[in-house]
Structure to design on (413 residues):
């Protein structure tokens, strides 16, 4: 599973190098901001229902989809799609009204609007397939397939001499919808029979039940994407481009953390569901160790070879990304060592705690960025990330250690 993510990160890095060479710093910054927004949609579009379905279906799945599970899967999918379409209409309408000052042309706007539902569906489908015990299959299309398809379409555009921000956004939109088709086939093979659009009452009921999960994911996702948005707001598109490169290469090891979290979340849910406190604690220790080792190894590698990588593969203007990149690796290492505790807390029904910690993290990132950017530029934003990670991830682990004896007994499913 980790090997799949390694290959996926390699393909993503390759795509970023090609884009950095093909686009101007301004264009790269606009693309980075759009991609960060789509990444937020991927996590927030399901409104937390993906985590709710993961807990409930994983807790009772025995190799067959029950009618109750089928209803949960359908309702979660419908909720995700409905929210994504609503976001699409709002964003499209806003930019269309603001057309005189809009940095995107009409075709670019269409491409972004079309990609929003696809990213949201990808997020919910991954959790559904994970709930059915297929972690590797759940990750492969997004971690590997999306970047591979994007590179292939981008290569065709380059061969046709059509490389530009417009063609890049169109390539991205086509790629994500092809991946959605792959996930639909996978759901069918796992026994999910068709799709029945649930009633509005069922959709609202699921949204209400998943509200605590959504709050936790909302602040966590904003904290993760905030550096790009803050860089764009405070420094403009060029600063966003530098921040994007710094985060992508500085947080390479986070793909291992994500892979470990994806693997262990169903285990956390099962341990909590059955009241196995010691097993839950052991699973968390194993998860933290497996995530921390590659993260600190990558940090050491960047300290030694980061300047060489930037000089060899990126245009000269990206040399300013070095120090933010190193600091991003520090933040990623802290998250790897402590952050999986928040995944465990969500799986045992403590999403509200994670929400509070994530809100504190977001506040720290914003305040630190506003305070430090004037003197440290992009590095100031990443310092805020380090401080925020200490608060959220360290606080989550401290809460888990203190409350672990009662977490399983009061798990909410």
């Amino acid at each position: 599973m980790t090997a799949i993510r390694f290959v996926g990160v390699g393909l993503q890095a390759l795509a970023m190098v090609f884009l950095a060479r093909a686009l101007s710093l301004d264009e790269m910054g606009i693309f980075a901001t759009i991609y960060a927004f789509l990444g937020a949609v991927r996590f927030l579009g399901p409104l937390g229902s993906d985590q709710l379905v993961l807990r409930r279906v994983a807790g009772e799945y025995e190799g067959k989809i029950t009618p109750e599970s089928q209803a949960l899967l359908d309702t979660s999918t419908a909720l995700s799609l409905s929210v994504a379409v609503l976001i699409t209409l709002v964003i499209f309408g806003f930019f269309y009204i603001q057309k005189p000052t809009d940095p995107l042309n009409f075709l670019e706007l269409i491409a972004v609007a079309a990609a929003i539902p696809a990213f949201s569906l990808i997020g919910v489908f991954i959790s559904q397939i994970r709930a059915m015990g297929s972690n590797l299959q759940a990750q492969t299309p997004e971690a590997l397939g999306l970047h591979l398809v994007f590179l292939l379409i981008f290569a065709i555009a380059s061969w046709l001499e059509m490389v530009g921000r417009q063609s890049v956004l169109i390539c991205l939109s086509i790629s994500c919808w092809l991946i959605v088709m792959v996930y639909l086939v996978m759901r069918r093979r796992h026994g999910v029979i068709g799709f029945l659009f649930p009633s509005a009452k069922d959709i609202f009921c699921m949204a209400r039940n998943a509200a605590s999960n959504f709050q936790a994911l909302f602040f966590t996702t904003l904290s993760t994407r905030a550096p790009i948005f803050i860089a764009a707001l405070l420094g403009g598109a060029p600063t966003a481009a530098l921040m994007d490169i710094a985060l992508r290469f500085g947080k390479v090891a986070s793909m291992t953390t994500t892979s470990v979290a994806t693997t262990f979340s169903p285990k956390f849910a099962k341990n909590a569901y059955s009241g196995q406190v010691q097993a839950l604690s052991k699973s968390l220790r194993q998860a933290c160790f497996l995530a921390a080792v590659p993260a600190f190894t990558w940090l050491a590698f960047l300290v030694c070879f980061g300047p060489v990588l930037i000089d060899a593969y990126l245009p000269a203007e990206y040399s300013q990304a070095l120090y933010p990149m190193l600091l991003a690796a520090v933040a990623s290492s802290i998250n790897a060592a402590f952050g999986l505790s928040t995944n465990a807390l969500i799986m045992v029904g403590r999403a509200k705690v994670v929400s509070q910690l994530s809100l504190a993290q977001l506040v720290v990132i914003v305040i630190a960025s506003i305070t430090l950017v004037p003197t440290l530029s992009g590095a100031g934003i990443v310092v805020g990330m380090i401080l925020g990670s200490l608060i959220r991830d360290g606080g989550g682990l401290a809460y888990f250690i203190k409350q672990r004896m009662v977490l399983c007994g009061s798990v909410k499913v």
Summary: Residues 1-209 form one domain. The chain has two domains: 1-209, 212-413. The chain has a mean pLDDT of 84. The first helix runs from residue 2 to 22.
